[in-house]
Each structure stands twice: as structure tokens, then as C-alpha cells.
Amino acid sequence: MGTPSTHFSESPEDPFALGRAAAAVLDEQGVVVGWSARAQELLGYPPGKVLGGAWQDLLVDAGDLPVVRSVVVDAVKAGGWFGVLPVRHRDGHRVDMGFRARAITREGGGQEWVLVGAPAAEVIAWQRDRALLDGLYRRSPIGLVTYGPDRTVIRVNRAVEKASGVPAEAPVGHHPREFMVDEDAGPTDERVRHVLETGEPLIFTEQSARARHDPGRERVVSVSAFRMEDPSGRVLGVAETIQDVTDRHRAQRRLALLNEASGLIGTSLDVAQTAREMAGVAVRGLADYCSVDLLEPVTLGDEPAPGAVGPLLRAALAPPEHRAPFQEGDVVPLLPDSAQARCLAERRPVLEGLLSLRPEWYAMDRRRIEIASGLGVHSLIAVPLVARGLVLGVVSLWRSRHSEPFEDDDAAVAQELSSRAAVCIDNARRFTQQQSAALTLQRSLLPSVASDLPAVEVACRYLPASGEPGIGGDWFDVIPLSGARVALVVGDVVGHGIHAAASMGRLRAAARTLASLDLEPDEVVARLDDLVSLLAAEVEANAEGNQSTIEQALGASCLYAVYDPVSQRCSLARAGHPAPVVSTPDGEVRVLDLPAGPPLGLGGLPFETYELDLPEGSLLTLYTDGLLEARNGDVDAALKDLHTCLTHVAEPLDQICHTVVEALLPKGHRPIDDIALLIARTRVLQPQNVASWQLPLEATSAARARELTTAQLTEWGLPELTFTTELVASELVTNAYRYAAGPATLRLIRTHSLICEVSDTSHTSPHLRRALSTDEGGRGLFLVAQLTDRWGTRYTHDGKTVWTEQPLPPA
Questions:
Q1: Cα gap 752→759, rounded to integer Å
Q2: Whole-angstrom distance, CA of residue 681 vs CA of residue 782
Q3: Residue 169 has what pLDDT?
Q4: How far is CA 322 from CA 316, 328, 358, 698, in A?
Q5: Closest Cα to residue 768, out of 754, 753, 756, 779?
Q6: Measured at the alpha carbon of residue 93, what is the angle toward residues 90 and 97, in degrees to the nearest 5?
Q7: What's the pLDDT at 5?
Q8: Which residue of 416, 578, 599, 740 has the lowest C-beta tally within 10 Å?
Q9: pLDDT under 50 in the chain at which residues?
Q10: 82 vs 189: CA distance, rounded Å
């Protein structure tokens, strides 16, 4: 007889599905009256062997018969049964089969039993899968959301309902934007769309999630998603697993904030700046608003009295809010019952999770409360700033509008931030004005000497006689100039300490400014002489001036040298300063016999430039007189020792500097005068890195300049710079053609940058100007300035040179 299809599952994955399951029909006496092909396949019996036979004789071993009969009794009573039973295969081995049995009434009376069976392993696996699916929706702690092909929600499990507070049936049939806040719904909808369209799964993607019914409660969830398909490949939707990682995310954010604070708070020795840094860090991830109020003595750099609690001055406010009742610099009243007063009195953080639960808070300061209410403030943490047992002030952190109230963990983070800020504020307060000035002068007088210069390799030493580190009247500088040249400067002011440092700081700044004008050494020294005369006159005219300050200014000396690595020419001028020492690679050491010149500030006396050629690898040693006077004041003996130390030209410069100091300064003794030592080893630009052409000033010169430039850059392997350099050379040569007389010289220099120079015989100063829209010219220098890193003009006795610099492309 047939096998009714109503007892088969329609799911193709169900082991009882039609086509997968075996089927048999038994009459009331247990005789087999129906047998399917699948039954034959699984148990080995063809229909002819089983039809008409009793099931217990054919299919059950004698040992299993009692168990099977007890199941039959139960099935008869219940009208059906489901479970696993042992069955005998035709070849005699035992097979565990899962069965569904059901009694059906035949037409005309009587019953038949329909059995549908499948291998027990398949049945158990299928039941396990169904139990897992049921568990995911009913008992899983991880959220599960399924979406249909139209990206609407099909089903939500109870974990999502519990975490969000939204009934599980509420989102069904809706898009995310209908039950989530817009800025969170958009990424969710886009994520579902991406998985639907591409089939690419998402794994542990973190996203903010806030429900529309409770927008102030922010949750961070970790989402994994995959596309659901039926066996034919038809897309059924998207399934997402959602895990609440809010606590972990907040802990990571707090840890990152503390780590970030280490580098952002205390970057200066300024009290107000440190307070602003504290407020700025707090609003980056902890609060919506932050104010830092300090005791008045702290803002002045003084130590507050023990137990002091007021008055308070607003030192910082973040973000700058124009509606805030107190701005930076305002006096902030400290009300007795306020959280700020309590935290200062008790020296501990005070957390007000919900200010609405404290009615007395609204009665403390009506003006402030009105403004705070307008900002939506609802939660507060007040933290004392305490360092070395001293109360410095108080930090107030506020959350407003949709932000969640502060928690105890937030208070702990706020206390840690405030502790770090308090130490930094106290350090800034403890620095006196003189110490701050000393640090500034130290940095200005000890320049960062560039070691990677095309002209020279340099090393230096600075040893102040003053007890305060880095404060003295001696100084040095290494100044890169145009054309790959370099200026070396050493100066000295009578005396030492902060006054001498202040005077020389002004001179050093002036020397740098003059060097940028590419003046000749004698001209630089002459203008410094004029400056010192003016400074001395100002000090003398000042009622507070004293004779020692005037003597310091008038007793200044200076040596200024310029070295050109292309020509190997060195030009020097000095004003009352010790002459430099030159050491050549062949071992010759000599003091240069250049004109001494008067000390700076005497005025009316000439300075001269001395020139010499320096072979590659020569040492040019510049120093102040404190070096020669450091040992017993015997200048001749010290100069002899200096010569001896400088004979080893090939040694590393740092080692040579160390040797000089060790030889001329007694071990363990501080110098009686400031010492500045600067040693430079000359370098030479090889001919293949310099190209120079003389061009007649005619209409075709610009075109010729472009041709030469292109050819040279091609040879140097710099095609990236061809267009720009062509344009620069063309514009500069065109200007020389228009405004100068005599031939022009085009020179290209390849060092750490590409230098383009055009020299002519005119002393007219080129300058940028704004060309009108109707002008046919006037834009050349503007283009040059825009296309290069630097440009400028230097003057010589024979004319001028306009130069530009461009960085070389990375190798």
C-alpha cells in the first residue's frame, strides 16, 4: 500500500523529509503491509521479503524485543510515538533508527500504523540543531536579530529585548531607523544592505546603539552578520548576532583617556595653560563641560596657605561656552553646600549622578542654575586638585542633555586626571619667573645645530660659568645660507648670568636676521656694532639701568664666518674676538691672522673681511676667550694645547671637542668664564653636483636656460623637478634680461635640495607685487615663490644673485 505524505516534513534538511526518510505501514496485527524504496535502501529488505510478515519477527532481534514491545504499548495508548529504536538489518547487524509512528483510521474501520524512519545519527543531529535554534531565540545571552530581504526586522530574540528594553515584537516589520536614533540607524541599515548585496559576512563590528524611546542611554554593541540562503541559493535575509560590549568599551575609552592625558597635560610650565589642558582632556571623552577653578595664590605662582578654600578664580573652561556664568579670569563664589565646597573640605571627589534628585542644588545660585538648565546639565563630579598635601583648586565635570549620568568609575577616572593635573600645575607654580626666563634663554642660546649640512660637519660645547645651567653670555650659531653656504658665528658678552644672557640673546637674534640678508661678513659685524651702540644708549637712558649692564653690552665681541662648499672659499670678520684656528688635512695648524676689529659698540671704526681657501676636510675652530683662560689664565700654554688637540683632523668631531675641553679645562673644575667651542669640518660639493652657464642677455636666453636646465636635470635623474625648475630659471633669466645689464649666470646645485641661481650685474632689488588683471607681466616672482620652498636675493660687489630652493624627491 502507499505511504501517506502527510507524515513527512517539508524541510529538505529534516531527516524525515520526503525522499530522505524510510516509510512502512503496519496493520492492527503488526503485519507489514507497506514498504518504501528508502526502507529497502536503509535496511536491505526488498518489499517481497517483508510484506505480509510480522514486524517483530523480521525487524527486531530477540534481545531488543522487550524494549520495543514496551514502546509499542506506549504508542498504542498515545496514538503515536517518536524516538530511537534498534532495528535488525537484513545482513544481521544492528541499526539504530529514529521513528515517527502514528495510528490512522482506515475508511470502513480499523487502524493502520504509519512509520517514518531515518538513521538515528541524522535524527539526533537534526534535533540538536532545532534545540540550538530554539535556544538562540529563547535562552541565549547573545542578541539575535533577523532581517528580511527588504531589510525589515523579522524576529528578535529575548536577549535583545532585555538589553534594549524594547518588547521583542516591537521592531518586527520595521526598518532600523524607525526604532533607533538616526545617527545609529544609518550604519545599521547600511550594514544589513551590504551583507544582503555582497554576501560578505561581518565579524565583531562595533557600533553605537541607542533606542528612540531612550536616546540618552548609549550602548556599544559588537555585531556579526551573515546572509541567509535556502538550498537553491535564494536570499532569505540577514542574521545578526549582537553582544553588548558597553562596559568593555567604556573601560577601554577611560584607559585611553588616561594614557592620552599623560602626553597632553603638563606640556608647559604655565599654570593657566596646564589648567586648559586638563579641561580639554576631560571633554574629549569624559564630560560635556569642564571647568578648572584655582585658588588665587596658585594663579600668581605662590603657595596657597594650608587649609585655604577661597577665593577661586576660573582658570579654564572647556569647551569655551559664551553662556557660561563665569569665564576665564572671573572670581567664582564657593557656596557652602555646593559639591565643590564639599569636595574641597573633604578632599575627595563628590559625585552627583542626578542633580534633579537634589532640590537644594537649585536654590544655591539662581543665575548659574538657570544657565546650567539651559545647557541641559544633569550630572556633576567635583574633584579637588591636591598636590604635595596642598589644595590648589577644584575641577568640575558636567554631563548634559542625552549623555548618561556619571558613574563611580567616571569619578575614579576624574580623580586620576585631576591628580596628574594637580602635579603639573604645582610644578608650574613652583617655577619662579627667573627660572622660566632662564629656560627660555637657555633654549635660545643653545641652538639645535644641524649635523646634515652640505657645507660643513659641526660639533660644539657650551660650558657656562654661572651656577644656573645654560645661562651665560657666550653663544654660538650655525646658520644655513643660500647657495649651500653656511654661516658660523661665535659671540661673547662681558660677565655671565641672566643679564649677560639677555644681552647676547638679542645679539644672536639680530645676527640670524642679518645672516638671512646674505650680507658680507664685515657688513654683518658692522650692523651688529650699530645695534650694540643703540642698546647701550637705551640702557643708559633708562633710569633703572646700571653701569654693569652698559659694560656688558659694550664689552661684546663677535666672530662671523661664511663658508662656500662650491668655491671652498671662507670669508671671516671679527669684532674684538679671538682669532679662529684652522687645521688642514696635512696636519698644519695655525691661527688665522685676520684683522681684529674693535669690540662691538664702540662705533665709527671699520671692520674688514678676510678670505682664504680651505681644502676639503679642514677644521675651522671658533671659540670664546674663556676656553684659553680656563686653566690658570696662561693663554699661551692653552693655545699650544689647543693646537696639539687640533692636529688629529680625521678624528670624529665630538671626540675632538671632548679632547679640547679635557685638555684646557681642569678636571672637576667649573670654568671661571663662559666657554663656547664650535668646530666645523669643511665639505666640498663635487663638480658633478654643480652646473653653471653664462648667458647673454638677449631674448632667446630664457629658452636657452630652459634647455640647459632640462638637460642637466635629466643627467642628474631628477625628471620630477624639470617642469618647475624650467619655469623658475626662465622667469629669473627673463627678469635679468629686462632689468639688468651685462651677461647673466645660471647655476644649478644639487645637495640635499635643488638650488637654482641666476646672477646679474644689477643691484636692483627684486620684489613680489600684486599684478592687476590687465597687466601683461608682474607675476614671475609670484610664481617662483609659489613653486619653491624658499627664495631670496644676495648681493655682492659685482651685482646680485636671485636663488631658489626645492626639496629633492624621495629616493
A1: 22
A2: 37
A3: 66
A4: 13, 11, 26, 65
A5: 779
A6: 85
A7: 39
A8: 416
A9: 1-6, 360, 362-364, 432-433, 469, 543, 545, 772-777
A10: 43
